Amino acid sequence: MNEPALITARGLRKSFGPTEALRGVDLDVRRGEVLAVMGPSGSGKSTLLHCLAGVLVPDSGTVEVAGRSVSGLGEAARSRLRLTEFGFVFQFGQLLPELTAADNVGLPLLLNGTPRARARTAAGAALARLGLQDAGEKHPTELSGGQAQRVAIARALITRPKVLFADEPTGSLDSLAAENVLTAMLDLVREDGTTVVLITHDPRTAAYADREVIVRDGRIGAVVA
């Protein structure tokens, strides 16, 4: 893959009290690439994701996405960027239990000002892409773990984000459900050309990526093409 970098991070440092979570990280993520970030618990990989996504501001260093500074933006601008250009999938989905699957998926569009009827139509289409066309009116408690995570993926991708940040997206699933969810997610992002930063501790999950980087003690320890 010879695409140019979409995300560029230079010299990222981040501490929490006396603990140095990131110690001068440099990283490029290519446009359209699925990048797996691996490392043991406490290595700094989730802190790296949060800095790349503008959830956290590094103590020093810079993050740019498509040539635009993320680390230099204020909180309101970073929130807007996360809503409009980034998608997020977390280990436990973080679906709102009081909403149906369709309403969970359509929520980012509603927050962007999309009319409710259009958001509902788009949510139905997004669920259908993940084989959940009959699940729209179910609540999260009525879904299996794999189905709920597919709903979370549909929600993350409904705005057609430039970047999908996935933090252990299959970590709470059994091996068969994890494989099915991961395959479905990666089929969609590769079809759409979405760049993915995938945090995982599982080599089997990382094997689906185009490239792997290993984080150890807050530094990039190795890159596996």
Automatic annotation (TrEMBL):
Q: Write one Gene Ontology MF term.
A: transmembrane transporter activity
Give the record's GO CC terms: membrane protein complex; plasma membrane
Q: Which Pfam families match?
A: ABC_tran
Question: Source organism's superkingdom?
Answer: Bacteria
UniProt keyword list: ATP-binding, Nucleotide-binding, Transport
What CDD domains does its record include? ABC_MJ0796_LolCDE_FtsE
Pinpoint the ABC transporter domain residues: 7-225
Q: Which residues form a coiled coil?
A: none
Q: What is this protein identified as? A: Putative ABC transport system ATP-binding protein
